[in-house]
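Lab manual, section 2.4: Encoding a predicted structure.

Procedure: take the sequence of the chain (99 residues), apply the prediction step described in section 2.3, and record the output as C-alpha cells. A sample record is shown.
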Amino acid sequence: MIVIFDKKPKNPDFCDMEKFALIDINKIRAWFFDKKIERLIKKAKRLNKITEHKYIVLYVFGKARIYKKADLKRLIRMRVFKKGITIQDLEKSAIFVTA
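Recorded output:
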C-alpha cells in the first residue's frame, strides 16, 4: 500500500517512513494462528455435536490439529507417544477439549 501526502502532516513521527513501512511479521503470524485455532475449535464443537465423540485440539509437530479422544487412546496403547504419556497429560497440554 502506497500513501502519498499532499501536505506535510502535523505529527512528524507519523511521516517517519521506517516506522510506517515496517510491518510486524510476528503480529501477522500470530493473527493467522489465532484464526486457525478459532476455526479448529469451531469445527471440534460442530463435530462433537454431530457425532457425540470427544475431540481434542492439540499442537503437534508444529501444527494445530483435531483428534478424537478415542484415537489418541489407541495411539497411546500402540506406544506412538513416549512411554508414560497418558490421555490426561495430553488433555493438560491441549488447546481445547470438547465436553
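Check your result against the sample. The radius of gyration is 22 Å.
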